[in-house]
Amino acid sequence: MSFVEVAIKVPLPRTFDYKIEEQLSGLSTPILPGMRVLVPFGNQKKVAVVLGIKNSTDVPLDKIKNIIEVIDDTPILSAQHLELLSFTARYYCYPLGETIHIALPSALRQGESPDKTSINMVALTEKGAKVPSLKAKTQLNLLKQLSQSGKSSLTELKALGFSKKTIDSLIDKELITQTIEHDNQWQSVAPTVGSKPVLNKEQAVACTAINQSSGFSSFLLEGVTGSGKTEVYLQCLEEVLKRGEQALVLVPEIGLTPQTVNRFRRRFPDTPIMLWHSALTDNERLQTWRFCEKGSCAIVIGTRSSIFLPFLKLGMIVVDEEHDSSFKQQDTLRYHARDLAAYRAFQHKIPLILGSATPALETLHKAINNKYQLLSLTERAQTATDNQFKLLDMKGQPDQAGIAHASLATMRQHLNRGKQVMVFLNRRGFSPTLICHECGWLSECKRCSTSATFHKAIGQMICHHCGDQYPVPHQCPDCGSTQIFPNGKGTEQIEEFLSTEFPDTPVTRIDRDSTRRKGSLEKALDEINLGGARILVGTQMLAKGHHFADVSLVIILDVDSGLYSCDFRATEHLAQLVTQVAGRAGRSGEPGQVLLQTHFPEHPLLQDLVNNGYQDFARFALSERDDADLPPITNMAIVRAQGH
Question: How far apart are CA 630 and CA 615, in angstroms?
Fold first, then answer.
């Protein structure tokens, strides 16, 4: 008698044994680890994943149940992939069944067939490539998108906000063509490569070190903003493609995937490149999963969950902006994609590139201790220049909506020259809370008791912790007073004020609220890249890898919020954020200006950051961590209790 050990999506840290009935044991294909089976569990039927076949079990034979059905003919998870998921479950103390459930596309969780392996691709026709203009602006934008990317899937175009009607209209005009690509294994020894710049000495050294490495090796590519880290990625990936291998490129935000894909497709126009992020439909995620597994996709550009994708022949992993907190899952399975990328590269015996202008102290510590090889890029690109920093003392400084009058005057100077100005505040909404001027009541979330943020544009109070929302109250729930006012500043309030203060200058806000609709972020970025005087207002979404050629001034509001915190990582995150935001200026050949509004201009952290840069700050911060026995010098666990 044979038994099968399976993982089931239940909140229990154990696996389960089932009996293989005689009619199932005689199947033409044997039951193998990684296959899905349907099993009885209590009063339900559940999809389970086979972990192994056994000849004995600790479960009494009169209590063990039979498998109902074998779903797959072949495993959907390889032995190596199962080991990755088993390691993840062990390391993050999470049930294996639930870990596997999170890693699988929705269709596979539900027992559906994995064989939906074709994808619709759209490309310009010869006629479409020559069209100079169209009356329909949306149609023209679609043609521009295809001219940049070479080709795009219907999935990507819909994610960018283009409707089926727009696509069909251009097909009818014979300006674009639609084809179906199947899951034939991708093979290439000489990928078509678009034009590429000549590497500087530091870039060439980095590429040589990575390309000549063998087996598992980890590299920290530490490069100042605008130093050409992406070009190093591209030239290293070219070598991977020549070997017919696949690559995974991890990016922190969905908003970075379209611009990254466009750049990669221009470099490798004939190479199948796919996306992976939460905005894809279930069917689209299943297609990407299968294309990766069967080797039909050469490069995947994805957010943190793409670390769980299967690959037929993975040759390299790149983690761009490796310091970014978006790589850490904050609920359920609390994994860190950067750390799993290191384990996965070790599994496959391949290179791992961690790129950042502001490396996490954990990563930098490993590089200093020779666990990672440090590759430094200290020169900004030819069109980028060093920025001029200034700490603006807010003590006694008149301000409006949190912006000092001196900052407003500097903004006018830059806008009058036709330049763009970025105003950064890492707090979305109109104000963090509402306050009653009669009794001091502060708005709270009704579900979790954290503060509820006032969103004026939609008339809602929203909890940024649990997502609960409710209408804005007109009376104080404690004393009944109508004297309720916004307390504090958010990006929505800054946008409203600047639109009034600079009525002739367009103001573009970029945060999670303003970019919620499909295609809204891409539309905003297109407007910014048209050039001309403009004010950009936003949160950390603005700091992540975007190239704004015309931004000459960056103003960072409320710098002080990160200086005094009980979180020992707060100063590290502040330094990273300031450096990343400042890096958006000075990319057009002339020095950018960066104003930091603070009540503590003499603070050692700010002085060190402004005068010596992030690298000097990071090494000093590591010495402080060493003195205090804090991570990454030591290990620390957090015990979190939650009630429902």
Answer: 19
Express each pLDDT in 145-178 by its tens digit: 888 777 787 777 876 778 888 888 888 888 899 8
Is the CB of residue 44 less than 8 Å from the CB of residue 86? no
DSSP 226: T
Instruction: Find out whether the peptide bond into 132 is cis, omega within 30 degrees of 0.
Output: no
CA 299 to chain centre: 16
**Please, what is the Cα angle at 529 between 523 and 263, to 5 degrees?**
85
Asked if residue 173 and residue 86 are part of one domain, the reply reads no
Structure tokens at 514: 């303003």
Largest CA distance in the chain: 84
More confident residue, 346 or 262: 346
pLDDT digits (tens, 9 = 90+) for 295-339: 999 999 999 999 999 999 999 999 999 999 999 998 899 999 999
Task: Name the average pLDDT for the chain.
Answer: 89
Beta bridge partners of 47: 38
Q: For the residues 226-247, what does the mean pLDDT come to?
A: 94
Q: pTM (2 decimals)?
A: 0.84
CA distances from 463 to 446, 449, 453, 467 (A): 9, 9, 6, 5
Q: Does the residue 22 lie in any domain?
A: yes
Q: Which DSSP string corresponds to 246-310?
A: EEEEE-S-GGGHHHHHHHHHHHSTTS-EEEE-TTS-HHHHHHHHHHHHTT--SEEEE-GGGGG--
Contact predicate 143/85, CB 8 Å: no
Residue 382 lies in a domain: no
| Per-residue pLDDT tens over the stretch 451-508 | 899 999 899 999 988 889 999 999 999 999 999 999 989 999 999 999 999 999 999 9
pLDDT at 259: 72
Rg (CA), the chain: 27
- Of 100, 12, 115, nearest to 49 by C-alpha is 100
Residue 197, number of CB atoms within 10 A of its CB = 12
Mind listing the pLDDT tens digit for each residue in 245-280? 999 999 998 776 667 888 898 899 889 999 898 888
Ramachandran region of residue 262, left (φ > 0), alpha (ψ -120 to 50) or beta?
Answer: alpha
The CA distances from residue 638 to 88, 89, 92, 109, 278, in Å, are 18, 17, 12, 31, 28
Q: Are residues 97 and 170 in the same domain?
A: no
Query: Domain with 67 in it: what CATH number?
Result: 3.40.1440.60
Whether 351 is in a domain gets the answer yes
H-type helices in 349-431, by residue range?
Answer: 361-368, 405-416
Residue 590, classed as helix, strand or coil, is: coil
Q: Two tokens at 573? A: 């995150």
Lowest mean pLDDT among 20-24, 354-358, 513-517, 599-603: 20-24
